[in-house]
Amino acid sequence: MQLVQDESALVAALRSGDEAAFAQLLDAYGGAMRRLALGFVHNAAVADEVVQEAWLGVLRGIGRFEGRSSLKTWIFRILTNTAKTRAERESRSRPFSAFEEETGGGEPTVDPERFQNPIHPGGWTTFPEPWSAPEPQLLARETRSLIESAIDALPPAQRLVISLCDVEGWPAEEVCNVLELSESNQRVLLHRARAKVRASLEDYLT
């Protein structure tokens, strides 16, 4: 659902206690907030508590909203901060500040064996298989389930970035603002996440 009011009017309505304005926000962002919370806590009941706590933070803090970021970014930052605190308190996640480690070094995104070409060093020996499955198969329930499982198995930062970019359809700038990542880190995390999901799909479809 798209917000139909301009942001300044919506903020003014929230500050005045307009229940319809709050309901509009719930409809627009509630589902995405729950999905993002699940990226941190991995428990539906705890995720619901995180979302409720975040909404309370929104209502308590709307009077201090200064418009330095969009209202959406501000709301989702409250959510991510709430989720981080809850996850760390329950020892379900390492601190998000440690996630940047995932962008440096680490495992290759493509199997190095595919580049061991004695004739053309560094060239492909085994090209990625084209996805020749018909559209109905790509849209089949088991394929969607495989994608969801592949995303769920990703390291936390990669899972959050690909979920926001490719599942929720957020622009990169919003993802960086909400997760407080640099553009380069966001790109690396997204690339690694997409490569792993593609590898899972490639195994299945070929």
Description:
- This protein has about 210 residues and is mostly helical.
- It is about 60% helix and about 0% strand.
- The chain folds into two domains: about 5-90, Rna Polymerase Sigma Factor, Chain: A, CATH 1.10.1740.10; about 100-205, Arc Repressor Mutant, subunit A (Orthogonal Bundle), CATH 1.10.10.10.
- The two termini are about 35 Å apart.
Topology:
Layout: H1 7-15, H2 19-41, H3 44-61, H4 71-89, H5 135-138, H6 141-152, H7 156-167, H8 172-179, H9 183-205
Q: For the record, what CATH class of the largest domain applies? A: Mainly Alpha
| Percent of residues in beta strands | under 5%
| CATH-defined topology of the largest domain | Arc Repressor Mutant, subunit A
Question: How many beta-strand segments?
Answer: 0
CATH H-level name of the largest domain... which superfamily?
Answer: Winged helix-like DNA-binding domain superfamily/Winged helix DNA-binding domain
Q: Please, how many domains?
A: 2
Number of contiguous helices = 9
Any idea what the CATH architecture of the largest domain is?
A: Orthogonal Bundle
Beginning-to-end CA distance, first to last residue = 37 Å
Q: Largest beta sheet, briefly?
A: none
Helix content: 55-70%
- Principal-axis shape equals elongated
Supply Rg. 20 Å
Structural class: mainly alpha
The sequence of SSEs as H and E is HHHHHHHHH
Low-confidence stretches: none
**Averaged pLDDT:** 81
Please tag this protein with its features.
206 residues; mainly alpha; Rna Polymerase Sigma Factor, Chain: A; Arc Repressor Mutant, subunit A; 2 domains
